[in-house]
From TrEMBL:
<dbReference type="GO" id="GO:0006817">
    <property type="term" value="P:phosphate ion transport"/>
</dbReference>
<dbReference type="GO" id="GO:0004721">
    <property type="term" value="F:phosphoprotein phosphatase activity"/>
</dbReference>
<keyword id="KW-0597">Phosphoprotein</keyword>
<dbReference type="InterPro" id="IPR021766">
    <property type="entry name" value="PhoR_N"/>
</dbReference>
<dbReference type="InterPro" id="IPR003594">
    <property type="entry name" value="HATPase_dom"/>
</dbReference>
<dbReference type="Pfam" id="PF02518">
    <property type="entry name" value="HATPase_c"/>
</dbReference>
<dbReference type="Pfam" id="PF00512">
    <property type="entry name" value="HisKA"/>
</dbReference>
<dbReference type="InterPro" id="IPR036890">
    <property type="entry name" value="HATPase_C_sf"/>
</dbReference>
<keyword id="KW-0902">Two-component regulatory system</keyword>
<dbReference type="InterPro" id="IPR035965">
    <property type="entry name" value="PAS-like_dom_sf"/>
</dbReference>
<dbReference type="InterPro" id="IPR014310">
    <property type="entry name" value="Sig_transdc_His_kinase_PhoR"/>
</dbReference>
<keyword id="KW-1003">Cell membrane</keyword>
<protein>
    <recommendedName>
        <fullName>Phosphate regulon sensor protein PhoR</fullName>
        <ecNumber>2.7.13.3</ecNumber>
    </recommendedName>
</protein>
<dbReference type="Pfam" id="PF13188">
    <property type="entry name" value="PAS_8"/>
</dbReference>
<keyword id="KW-0592">Phosphate transport</keyword>
<keyword id="KW-0812">Transmembrane</keyword>
<feature type="domain" description="Histidine kinase">
    <location>
        <begin position="208"/>
        <end position="422"/>
    </location>
</feature>
């Protein structure tokens, strides 16, 4: 600013002297001196601007003379505003990219030739893309699934493509290609492994239920036809009716177990109440004796103390199933022991038998619905294949665990363990 004033004053003095000396040689000399000084000043400022324009960094020290100073200041202000805007935008873009990386769905941006331009972290994991090396690579060279390559080739993206990958464990991905901007594609990848598993479980379940009910129903309708068409004597008639009764009893058990399972699975857990375990275990023991009808040696090894906080009906369903299984799968003459113990870690109810035992390969699957080691044996013994599924769900609702140890031909032990927080009344 001071320099601007100095140049202004200098110009005013020259103008004054020019007027004073008039059009004499002295006047012309002064005029040229003034003009040269002026031109030199403009040249100096122009050179500064020229130098700055090669590397326009924000520089508050860029000062000019006269009007140049105002121009430099305006330039400085514009540049500062511009840089602030850019910084703002960069922060927005960084936040946007962080949000895209945080998404549960995989996102891959592709150009018109399906080459990778950007890929979020989820897509890196899902499709094994390495962003540092795969940028610019054709996606078909990275996801080398023939069905995916076919999908890209056909160009019909109205429906998503479902891919099954089994690199580490089976994963099911649903891929959507969405056109965006001009000639660009957004590949959205959803991991539907869980929903696919649930879907197939639901399908299997419906198929299993239909199959389980169809068998006794077929037998039953066969007997009905026989009774309708053939004249039978009283004994045969009684025999047929007894068989029909068994089949309808079987259907009733299946439906009853299905209802129990569905109520345990879907209804909210009932209020916890203290359940008197001494009398419950005693009742289970008497049920076992009744079920066994003298075929087994039934023993009770009980602490006889302590209540369990929980839903009594669900606890009864779970524990009674273990007792019924022990009776069902222990040949006559075997021993079945009901154990109830309380320790500092919690409480344990176990059923130990000297029955047929289970091959270790079946143990992890025993709590699946309708899973049986020997289908015929289970049916003959009146099993529905749902007992251990009911046990598992009901124990889950009490934060309890089930441990199965067994040796084929020697016997099994089904132990349920409840956390100490559920034990009261000591
Ligand atoms: P089921 O109604 O067939 O008994 P569960 O779900 O209760 O169905 O049991 C699943 C399978 O586990 C049974 O079919 C049987 O093969 C096996 N199992 C269960 N308990 C025992 C046991 N105590 N001893 C031997 N096998 C058992």
């Amino acid at each position: 600013m001071q320099r601007a004033l100095a140049y202004g004053a200098f110009t005013a003095v020259i103008a004054f002297l020019l007027g004073y000396f008039g059009e004499t040689w002295m006047g012309w000399v002064l005029f040229y001196i003034g003009l040269s000084v002026h031109l030199a000043m403009h040249y100096r400022n122009f050179s500064r601007l020229e130098r700055w324009s090669h590397k326009p960094v924000l520089d508050a020290s860029l000062e000019g003379d006269g009007e140049w100073d105002a121009v430099f200041r305006r330039l400085y202000r514009h540049e500062k505003e511009l840089l602030e805007k850019i910084e703002h935008r960069e922060r927005d873009i960084a936040r946007l990219i962080a949000a895209v990386h945080a998404m549960n769905d995989g996102i891959v941006l592709l150009d018109g030739e399906f080459r990778i331009q950007f890929c979020n972290k989820t897509a890196e994991r899902q499709l094994d893309i390495d962003s540092s090396t795969d940028r610019g690579a054709a996606i078909a060279n990275i996801v080398r699934q023939p069905r995916f390559i076919d999908y890209l080739g056909k160009g019909d993206f109205t429906r998503p493509l479902v891919l099954r990958l089994d690199r580490y464990f089976e994963r099911v991905l649903s891929l959507y290609l969405i056109a965006y901007a001009e000639d660009h594609w957004l590949l959205q990848v959803k991991d539907i492994t869980q929903t696919d598993r649930l879907d197939s479980m639901r399908r299997d379940f419906v198929a299993n239920v239909s199959h389980e009910l169809r068998t006794p129903l077929t037998v039953l309708s066969g007997f009905v036809e026989t009774l309708q068409e053939i004249e039978l004597d009283a004994d045969s008639r009684r025999h047929y009716l007894q068989l029909m009764g068994e089949q309808s009893q079987r259907m009733q058990s299946i439906v009853q177990d299905l209802l129990t399972l569905s109520s345990i699975e879907s209804a909210p857990p009932p209020e916890d109440q203290p359940v008197d375990m001494a009398s419950l275990v005693d009742k289970l023991y008497r049920d076992a004796v009744a079920l066994s009808a003298g075929r087994h040696d039934i023993r009770l090894d009980s602490d006889g103390q302590g209540d369990l906080l929980g839903a009594e009906s669900e606890l009864v369903s779970a524990l009674a199933n273990l007792v019924a299984n022990a009776v069902r799968y222990t040949p006559a003459g075997g021993t079945i022991t009901l154990i109830w113990k309380i320790s500092a870690e919690g409480a344990e109810f176990a059923v130990q038998d000297t029955g047929i035992g289970i091959d270790p390969k079946h143990i992890p699957r025993l709590t699946e619905r309708f899973y049986r080691v020997d289908r015929g044996r289970s049916r003959d013994a009146g099993g529905t294949g749902l007992g251990l599924a009911i046990v598992k769900h009901s124990l889950n609702r009490h934060q309890a665990t089930l441990e199965i140890t067994s040796k084929p031909g020697e016997g099994s032990r089904f132990a349920t363990r409840f956390p100490a927080s559920r034990v009261t009344g000591l």
